[in-house]
Amino acid sequence: MGDQEHQSKARGATLRVRARRLWQRLVGREALWVLVFLATGLWVLLPSGSFFVARVESGQIATRDYLANRELLWEDEETTGARRARAREEVLTLFDFEPGVARTREDELVQLFEVGRATTLAEDDGDDVVDEEAETPLEALLAASSIKVDQAQLEVFTAHDFSGELEQRLKNVISEILQKGVVSNKSDLLQQRERGIRLRNLETGEERLQLDVYRYLDFPAEVQEQIETESRRWLDHDRGERKLLREFLFSNITPNVFLNRSESLARQEEAAQATPAVFQRRGPGQVIVRKGDQIDQVGMRFINQMMGRKSALSLLLPSAGQFLLLTLGAFLIWLALKREPHLSGEPRRILSGLLMLLTLSLVCLRFSILTSAALGGFFESAPFNSPSIYLYGIPYAAVALISFLLYGRSIALVTSIVFSVLSGQFTQGDSWTIVIYALVGSLSAIYFLDQVKKRSSVNGAGLVVGVVNSVSVMMIVTLRGGEDLVDLEEFGLSLACGLVGGLLVAAVAGFAVPLFEWLLSLTTDVTLVELSNTNLPLLRRLAFEAPGTFQHSLMVANLAKAGCAEIGADAVLAYTSGLYHDIGKIPRSEYFIENQRGPNPHDSLEPSLSARIVIGHVTDGLEMAGEARLPQVIIDAIAQHHGTNLLAYFHNRALESKGGETVDEDAYRYPGPKPQNRAMGVLMLADAVEAASRTLVEASSTSIRNVIDQIFDAGHSSGQLDETDLTLADLKALRAEFQRVLENLHHRRVDYPGFEFESDKESSQLRVVRGN
Fold it and tell me: Helix 701-717 vs helix 728-745: angle between axes, to the nearest 10 degrees?
């Protein structure tokens, strides 16, 4: 029986392991969870009775008389749309004209020729004493002006002494073209040739109807043609000068007639909105369709409205809208994960986890909505018979709090926004109130907790959410009230529901977070903080059996925590990992120098054996972590905190003992892997720096800096940090932070007057020594 029971347990354990592995593979398939989210979300968001209902269709023969049982009214969207389309077509397209462009170009041209003439006149007067490095007035003008002229064009102007005739000729061409109007895309104008356009003078604001749209010049083709035509009359210039003058004119003429598309559309939409909607109406008792008649479109709409039936289109459109909304929500979460620079897990697994959370939340929300309706129907007296009041008691912010505890603040923010918008789809009428209510509560849950130090912090967050919910209820009720008096009983019940909703947030999060940790193989900061309690059995064992290693681990944990906080990495993970990274030294603590109080046992061992013992603390630590059921992130820290570094000391000893013969380097190298994220990279550096700093005889600022620089340079050059995403800026910040922490730890204290602690006890005599 014993063997059978043992085999049964072994088979059960094997099945559990296989099921766990299968589940983890499913979690990694984000496409599957996207489909589950969309399908489940569409099912819960659509109202009950949306599908599989009998409908009256157009073209059917009425089997009875249909009389309106109440006032029936619906908007004739087709007729309304046609009227509004005509209203839009009657609005002329608006174009803006900038007359000031012509004056600006004329003024700049006049200034150019005036300064040019003055410069030419000064040169003719024989002013030879000129500072070649000084800027001439003409150069200063060209630097300050927007007019475009190159050196060849200036030479033409200079050759003609910047004559007034040339100035007037160029000015007339620019003025004629720009005052006529230049448009960058004449096809926009020609589309309005039958109806004309509205032309607005941007200086005066005056608008006028312009029927002749052909008068405006197209840029650049017609502008070039106009300039070419004018230049043929300049017989006093040779072909080269005319070409340069044409180029000058063309480069200084820009379009000054522009299509104002946005305002044109706004005016069209304003005209459409001003067109009243067309409604079809049937009064109580009025005949809709008589028996035997064919049901037309109007009759179908009235009958389905009266009987609560929906057309196929009215079912399809909400379904499509809800599907697009769910798709947009999933896309926003995916986009947020893509933009998140440092994630503690694979983005696809995080996306799967968030979609799983949203899917379960939507199902629970639908159940909560039904529960609210049931409570409203159970009670007969006001205000307890109002289902809308109980909506304030739903823990909307639980999604935000759970996602914050699982993945951090930035991811929780996007998730809470998506869930808040989806929550508003469950209510009819003022859905915005639920969206705002859920979002405000979610934001308070996210930003109340700066750092989770224990699970009871979640209860505090729930209380804060409850208070914020109550304030939100006050805002919503007062905004709804308007000029009417607020019902105090309804108001009080709403406040109570808001407070209860906050307390339920803490309860739901406290239950769901451990569940999602197990489902998604996650380790939250709450769990890490709990594991950092030094009174836990494994850490107590480390403190008593390897006290030197324990002190070293405390120092490494604090150093890594400070470094991660400085660069924005996971400080909680670094601190807890630092406490556990050397637990593998417990079984053979006497072989590690920080625990030795007498002779070093390695002095009598072969270098290869010493290396196996030292390297073995990693594998021993992994085994102990597995037995203690530590989270995977801690197990990874134990495996990665030395990377694949070489035990240089024992490797050198082996080389010396072999007399220079080749030694297998792999036997003296840690198995790794290299650190896989920023926190693990900081942990490896903190471990090496803290250990090296203990070798300093005098821990001065310079010696500490040298230790940090050498450790960092070695880690970087050996490629141990290649897979951590640590940037050079991060390493620079870490150097400074490690320097600050170590200097504080090794700071000098003042001497104790009358004592000499470093002298031998037998030979020392009490005497006064100098103090600082």
Answer: 150
